[in-house]
Amino acid sequence: MKAILKTERLNAFFESFHAVRDVNLEVTPNSVYALIGPSGCGKSTLLRTMNRLHEETAGASVQGKVILEGKNIYDAGVDPVAIRRRIGMVFQKPNPFPSMSIFDNTIVGLKLAGIRKLSLLNEVAERSLKRSALWDEVKDKLKEPSTSLSGGQQQRLCIARALAIEPPVLLMDEPTSALDPISTARIEELVTELKKLVTVVIVTHNMQQASRISDSTGFMYLGELVESDKTSKIFTNPHDERTERYVTGRYG
Amino acid sequence: MSVIQLNLRDRRRKIIDRLMLLLLVMSAFFAVIPLLFVFYYVMSKALPHINLEFFYQLPVPVGESGGGMGNAVMGTMKLLGIASIVGIPWGIFIGIYLSEYGKSKTANAVRFFTDLFTSVPSIIIGLFVYGLIVKPMGSFSGIAGGLSLAVIMIPIIGRSTEEILKLTPIHIREAGLALGLSRRKVIIQIVLRGSASAVFTGVLLAIARASGETAPLLFTALNNSFWSNSLLEPMASLPVQIFTYAVSPFEEWQNQAWVGAFVLVFFVFGVNLLVRIWFNFGVKR
Amino acid sequence: MSQVDMVNKEFLGLGPEVSGLKKKLLETAGLVEKSVRLSGDLFLGKSVSEGLIKEIFQIEALVNSAHKDIDQECMRILAMAPVASDLRKIMAALKVNGDLERISDQSVNVAQNYDKLDGHMNASQAFQIRKMSEITNLMICSALDALGSGDVDKAKKVIEMDDSLDTLNSQAFRNAIDGIKEDSSQAELGITLILIARNFERIGDHATNISEEVIFTTTGEDIRHAGGN
Fold it and tell me: What is the DSSP string of chain B?
């Protein structure tokens, strides 16, 4: 099956620090791809090159290609803002916009892009909140501030917000590491459901999570993509010694 | 240590604790007393002479009864209006620039000069605007006065806006960018809108501060015994009028000065109180 | 829970747990090896059989108890969610544990069947059983060596030896059937001999299973059911 997202010789730098080294990976459509590895291995940086967020940091730069649906997003003349409408992102700390209500937060991506028709916004809001399994809990209080929700609910709101603009790919940067185990489990369930709609790339430092919800896994170490394979293989019989050492906890 | 020794240490610690608390309360009290004293004094001097005519009648020559400082009250409002129209957008713009692009060398220079302006004596600012506008124009004017107040307000608003915007965590901005919104939209529609209350309170405080400035107005708006018909004429203002009347030898004028002072103090105090209440009730949802 | 060696600052993962398990497994394996050897020694023609049979039963009691302990250990470690080579080792340990217990059972069966024979076995029949027992001893020895060292080549040799054991088993079967056809009063003896041969053949099968587990643990390859049996 043709990959929906591909990187070719992707490198990322912070000034002169070489954070991501020559990464080549492929993500098949409607699957979950997990990125694991020790702290500082570059997995978050790699993720942020996929929606051109990395270059927003002062001094940061990218070399190589990221190919989304057949087109290189780093081609000259490509507008990063337009790219980010095709790739959604959910962050580690739930970050709904503080001054906005639940409803406003959900459809903010549409509203600020100029879509004002209320019936359409209502429709999109309901659909997105249903897709992120939050609708039942908030349908009676859509106008309440987003800060009145619990951490797990806020994160699902952020997922709804990202889904509202209907991107084909969703990036998730350790989305459950700030949440309690029950919220974590609900979001993992959600990701497995979302596969039918979008393709997910998820960075996680929790290996059990990766083995639970992902179809393929990539192990990163010191900026390199050491091994990338089906999740079952990585966790039962990895090819590389470094991968073996990391997943069995021999890594220091 | 034995139990008895522990108890004694405990008791001693508690006594010292209470003593320190007492000292703190007393110092807070002593800090507030002069303020209360000023309020009381001004009120006692002003209240016997306060009347509604103060707010809409022109000053009258000595010897005549009645009259007020209507033109000064109106003048202060007009001057603050001009200062706000110029100063608020400019100040907020500087605040946005410093908070969003604040790490570059240019930004550091801007920040340095902004801070410099806040510490320049306001009379120098008055002279600055005098040289810039009054002299070329050939006359004192309300415009010049308003602009001098703007120059005072801009750095205050700029720095307070910067600090408030910096409170928005970076991942909120990133969330906005990740939704495919341009940087401009993220800053204005998300960050600024999110801190609108706080920014507004910063603006109100800057206005309150500017309302009491006298020195710059002496070189720019000067004063006017009558209503100013246009902004290009000299304009009366409360601080200047109070000053003029206070140093005069006439008792009626001195009484009027007290009333003016009272109005000014009340205005500044009122704005600060409003800001406090708004912040505590509006933001604490 | 992953462990850390605080002195050498090494991250040990589940290493200590898995090594502890392996040690227990190898101890049990040693007992089982002895039990199989003793059951073969019954057919040496000496009259020390009483003591041998008693020892075989004693070993069985120890092996059964260890069998339960090791299964519980495996479950405890599985609850810690081992992955990769750790996971394969625990899976293998569970299966090998079962194989060892059944090998010990088969030894006991040999001893019981020997009792039933009541000495009514002739020299050539005893010789045949003895040959099977020698191969089985070799297979068990090699399989358990491979288990301890992870030696894939040794494991593969064990699997090869299984064929010769099967051949001997078929021969013993044929001989016994022929014997019964000649003299039907020898039926009980013949059938008991078939059963004993079958016991040794089963022991060889279990040794083969253990070898397959060793190969899986070391290489991650599942070579079971390969080649038409």
Answer: --HHHHHHHHHHHHHHHHHHHHHHHHHHHHHHHHHHHHHHHHHHHHGGG--GGGGTSPP--TT------HHHHHHHHHHHHHHHHHHHHHHHHHHHHHHHSTTSHHHHHHHHHHHHHHHS-HHHHHHHHIIIIIHHHTS--HHHHHHHHHHHHHHHHHHHHHHHHHTS-HHHHHHHHHTT--HHHIIIIIIIHHTHHHHHHHHHHHHHHHHT--HHHHHHT---SS--SSTTS----HHHHHHHHHTSS-HHHHHHHHHHHHHHHHHHHHHHHHHHHIIIIIS--
